[in-house]
## 1
Amino acid sequence: MSKDSFDHHVSRRRLVQLAAAGTLAATTLGASGGSAAAQDASAGSTLARIRAAGKMRVAALVGEPPYFAKSALTGEWAGACVDMANDIAKLLEVEIEFVDSTYGNSVIQLQTDKVDIAMSLTPTPVRSLSINFSKSYFLHGYGLVAPDSLKVSTWAELNNPDIRVAVDLGSTQEMAARRFAPKANITAFATRDEVMLALQTGRVDCAVFAALLGMTAVKKNPAIGKFSMLTEPVIGLPACLAIPKEDNQDWKTFLDVWVEYNRGIGQVTEWLTNGMKLAGVEPDDIPSDVKL
């Protein structure tokens, strides 16, 4: 591994040091009186408040493997982002509270102090006006779910008014399809389940999916077709940790280093690969051009 590829080999010990530094002031004031410590925790960073409360509140996406999956029997959470959250909480020596959420709701929950972190959001210029983001832990590519009879592998081939394309409304899938295949006959459905139903019933010819979501959808319902990456160009948008917008940068600094460290040692890839197994997608099922 080169020196530049991994932030000069930041160690796990350094992660703990950064976390501790974020609450140094609160610890010092705590020795002189409980009221001073409480005042500092309230005025300080999200990181300081998490450490003071002993709890990290995580926006958990219900039914979104490989990131999140919740057992209907036990209520226990699993998935790649659950593993990430557990690792962060272990470093901070705090407990986790998972708060039921959706992609859209998680932004509002961060703005209204309902959660401290959302684990899998794509940064957009509009979102950046109201919340902040860590460095990217994964570059999410885009592809197509379609039957074998549809021979499309590039965006230019998809850019055809005779091809009926499904996307989920307001998603990055819709953004990519309308930007790179504007001439296609695109229909936006309210939910991803409606996209899958449209595929199964033949109301559309194909659907644009982000790679992990596409592979998961096909495994859940093989009747909708197969997933393959779209090329020329290869499109990828970052997946990041989302956090409240604040002047104090302790929380963001810690998470940026955490991302660099775990991406550099291949831990993020392992978490994502294990998360895919929750949807029945084994490592051999992942196309070679999908990079986790």
## 2
Amino acid sequence: MRQPAHPLPVLALLPVLLFGATACQGAAEPDARAPAAPPAVVVDDGVPGAARAPVRPGAKDARVGSTARLHGRQFGRHLQVVLRAFVDPAISVDKKFAPPAGKRWVAASMSFVNVGGASYGALGRMWAHDGAGRRHPVVKTGELTTGKPIVFDSLEVGERAEGWVVFEIPESVRIVRLQYQDANAQANSGEGFWAV
């Protein structure tokens, strides 16, 4: 006659089976009461289908006359940038040179100093943001009544470049902020904005 199997081996395996089942479960769901991450501020070019660039939440715009430091993607690359003045409208020295009908120029006097440990590349891109959220790029002009346009190919450590940048905008549009960005600058950092 066969004797029944002893129940002890099955009981010894029970904790292992239970632990294995627990280990295969997914990670715990996050607490629904935890605060959500703050939404990113977006920049809209006003062009249908244009990509929007998120900007670090909580970043504050610099003001006319104040200095902003732009940190480069590479260690030791830093620009010190000052929006020295903003004029609306901007007028060419050459009376024959003017924006087309229905448009006007606004201009910003900018100062760039390389305060990092490496040479800095060519002048990046700038935009004037209007009250509706559209961005207007820099346009080429000659000398203004307020001064000459800015030009630089590169800035060595300690070098400075100063001059005016001009934006062509519709007559009825109000500009509220300016933006500077280049290939060296940290993307989406919130740096390089001025309220006007």
## 3
Amino acid sequence: LCINNVEAFHAPALVTEPAISRNGKDEVTITAGDKGSDVYYTTDGTTPTTKSARYTAPFAFAKKGTVKAIAYDASFNKQSPVSSAAFDIPASGLKIVTPKDEKTAVILDGNGYTAYYLPEGKQQLEVELNTEAPISGFVYVPNQGRDAGGHISSYQLYIDNVKVAEGEFSNIKHNPIAQEIKFTPVKGKKIRLVATSITENGKRAGIGEFSVITAE
């Protein structure tokens, strides 16, 4: 074995974009993807820079709006791509009417890994808004846990007991990501999501997160 030369070099940092989430207390948390990176953010939809507000702790954001953030590594003077999260009606603006179970709070906690499974034979979720609003869609997030089951594969959605949408979540079994459904705005207050079929003929539908989309 003959070694002619040995060198070491300091590889430049690969700064990944931060993750943005809002919990059931209407607090926004921004997590940097890399240790040692500083995070800067905006709450008015504008693109953040290192001159924007520096993230130090979760902050209250109980309203509709867009939070954007970047991570910055001062050692290499490198900035991550921009992360963006559009939030609509906060958890404080919604009330889960059915099922009547305190554990349903996890449906609004901003964490897709904490899921609630609807009672067998009663595959529907009823949510009521604090005030009537022009509803233009919803987002269903299946249980994000590894090898989780019980994903809703087809659905019906009612607003004030009138069916406004129905369909299926294509390939949700193999790709259980957030499912965003939009439709022509309907003014109302009560929303009912009905699971008409569940993957692998499951008996109980799991809901990691559920949120409402309102028109501008």
